[in-house]
């Protein structure tokens, strides 16, 4: 707390009351329910879950309602609540090849097993306001196509693996570090970088990813595959000796295929970028994959072009919107004592400068 501030409790209480009144809005209009937010603002809910590191659509919808639609504030609320939850174990890695896809596309191969599935996307809309949505009770003409079967859909980059044209990703049984329980340390492993990026602010990650496409990182990428759908979450129960399914979550996954001219230790081949995000968040997943590949320059033996997207410290320490918000917004809080010290310093410097000028004029 700022000890220089006294007697502000009544003003703070009044500010909270006013905030509650504005949050509710016009009482002649029905209050928006959690179910409505979850169902009709699903993409906002997905972002709050992803950057809040907690998969719970109802809680994310509640946070959006409480924050009056300020998604970063909602993410802050979710992260704060998450710290109160007990941890009783860890899940096994999800199997995205078993995903029940509602969207699955590739920009590298036209014909792929299982076919290209456009799914629900804004890609082909005309970006014109649909004023029919302003009329209440207008039924939707679209019908939900549903998921694309339950058969295993191998990742498209696996086909490049058959010819040895893409770098093989090394597997590991080691438990990755947990960014939600341990502070970020550099240099970071790839697993830790991906955690930071999936929690990172979508706008920041998007901007950094875009910079790699404009030449700040020499990152020419193709979307090998983008898939969105539901995957099972399994947890191993020691007493049973096998894993059981405990939940099903929706995720967005992107694998990019990138040019690689080779190095002293690696032959010319394609390399990958990877992104995985809670919910339907393909923009974030693609941006993550672009940044993931840019940050792998050292392990691939590439030259660093001094681009921001290749600077691990710059990217990872600035992508977290909660940390950024805290540091940026704290300057609006009372700094009376600090400013008075600065004020006195500037007055003293001005006085000394005036006296020095007067002395120089007198010496002429």
Walkthrough of the structure:
With 364 residues, the protein is of the alpha+beta class. It folds into three domains: 9-82, no CATH class; 96-131 and 142-325, no CATH class; 334-363. It has helices spanning 9-24, 34-40, 42-52, 57-66, 71-82, 157-161, 190-199, 202-213, 282-294, 312-318, 321-329, 336-363; strands at 100-105, 221-237, 242-258, 271-278. The chain has a four-stranded antiparallel beta sheet. Strand 2 and strand 3 form a beta hairpin. Helix 3 packs across helix 5 (71-82). The chain is globular. The N and C termini lie far apart (54 Å). The model has no long low-confidence stretch (mean pLDDT 86).
Features:
3 domains; globular; single chain; 364 residues; 12 helices; four-stranded antiparallel sheet; 38% helix; alpha+beta
Residue share in helices?
Answer: 25-40%
Which sequence of SSEs, written as H and E, runs from N to C?
HHHHHEHHHEEEHHHH
Shape: globular
The neighbouring-strand order within the major sheet is: 1-2-3-4
């Amino acid at each position: 707390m700022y000890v220089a501030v006294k007697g502000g409790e009544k003003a703070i209480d009044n500010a909270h009351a006013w905030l509650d009144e504005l949050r509710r809005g016009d009482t002649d209009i029905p209050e928006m329910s959690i179910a409505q937010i979850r169902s009709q603002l699903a993409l906002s809910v997905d972002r709050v879950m992803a950057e809040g590191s907690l998969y719970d659509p109802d809680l994310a919808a509640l946070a959006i309602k409480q924050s009056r639609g300020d998604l970063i504030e909602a993410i802050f609320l979710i992260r704060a609540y998450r710290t109160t939850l007990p941890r009783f174990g860890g899940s096994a890695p999800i199997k995205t090849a078993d995903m029940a896809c509602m969207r699955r596309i590739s920009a590298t191969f036209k014909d792929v097993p299982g076919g290209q599935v456009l799914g629900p996307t804004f890609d082909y809309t005309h970006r014109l306001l649909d004023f029919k949505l302003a009329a209440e009770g207008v039924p939707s003409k679209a019908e939900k196509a549903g998921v694309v079967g339950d058969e295993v859909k191998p990742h498209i980059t696996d086909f490049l693996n058959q010819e040895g044209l893409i770098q093989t990703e090394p597997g590991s049984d080691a438990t990755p570090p947990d960014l939600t329980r341990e502070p970020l340390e550099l240099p970071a492993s790839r697993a830790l970088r991906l955690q930071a990026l999936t929690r990172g602010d979508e706008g920041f990650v998007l901007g950094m990813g875009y910079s790699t496409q404009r030449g700040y990182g020499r990152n020419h990428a193709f979307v090998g595959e983008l898939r969105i759908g539901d995957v099972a979450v399994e947890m191993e129960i020691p007493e049973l000796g096998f894993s059981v399914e405990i939940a099903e979550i929706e995720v967005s996954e992107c694998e990019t295929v990138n040019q690689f001219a080779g190095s002293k230790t690696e032959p010319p081949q394609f390399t990958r970028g990877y992104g995985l995000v809670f919910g339907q968040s393909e923009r974030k997943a693609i941006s993550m994959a672009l940044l993931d590949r840019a940050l792998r320059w050292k392990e691939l033996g590439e030259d660093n072009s001094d681009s921001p997207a290749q600077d691990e410290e710059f990217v990872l320490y600035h992508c977290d919107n909660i940390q950024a918000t805290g540091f940026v917004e704290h300057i609006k809080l009372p700094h009376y004592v600090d400013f008075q010290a600065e004020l006195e310093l500037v007055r003293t410097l001005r006085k000394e400068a005036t006296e020095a000028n007067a002395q120089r004029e007198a010496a002429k």
